[in-house]
Amino acid sequence: MKKVITMFAMGLVALSLVFAPSGASAVGTTTATSSIKIKMDKKSDKKISKNVDVACVATAVGKREDALLKSWQTFDDAVEATFAARKSALVSAWSLSDAKERKTAVKKALSEAKSARKAAASTLKTSKKSTWSTFKSEAKACGGAAGSEASLESEAGEKVEI
């Protein structure tokens, strides 16, 4: 019975939104710094108001994006340095006249470059994970459902394989 009443009430709210004057809002309010979200508690079928400080979340997002940008710049610098070192090592290796020494030096240069690229990728991954963890904590501290809303953003698509 509660579900039927809830569905009826939700239908009325939806209709009031459609036919409400353009300046009116039937659910929640919005200001420059916060908004009120109303959602249903899955266990008790009761409405729960959640205050979210959107300015706080916006600040947390800005910090997160700055930290991610710095992580990518650090990664880029490390990979660039790796390729410069590899170039120097390969040029030196190819200047050796002994074939056995040259082969050993080339393998060493390539192996060291591969290890350095993997280390840079590992550092990037760790940095991104830390950044996202910090962001999630900060978003939760902004109150209400900010943590769950912010979880819609994800680092899942940002993978680097080397």
Explain this structure to me?
- This protein has 162 residues and is mostly helical.
- It has a two-stranded antiparallel ribbon.
- Helix 2 runs antiparallel to helix 3.
- It is rod-shaped.
- About 21% of the residues have low confidence.
Mean pLDDT: 76
| Total number of beta strands | 2
How are the strands of the biggest sheet laid out side by side? 1-2
| Termini gap | 57 Å
Give the low-pLDDT segments: 4-32, 34-38
**What does the main sheet amount to?**
2 strands, antiparallel
What string gives the helices and strands in order?
A: HEEHHH
Structural class: mainly alpha
What percentage of the residues does DSSP assign to strands (E)? Answer: 5-15%
What percentage of residues falls in helices of 4 or more residues?
Answer: 55-70%
Tally of separate domains: 2
- How many whole angstroms does the radius of gyration measure? 27 Å
- How large is the count of helical segments? 4
**Shape field:** rod-shaped
Attribute tags:
162 residues; mainly alpha; two-stranded antiparallel sheet; 4 helices; rod-shaped
Give the helices and strands, then pairings:
Blueprint: H1 2-19, E1 34-40, E2 47-53, H2 54-94, H3 99-141, H4 146-150
Antiparallel strand pairs: 1-2
Helix pairs in contact: 2-3
Q: What's a concise summary of this model?
A:
The chain is mostly helical and 162 residues long.
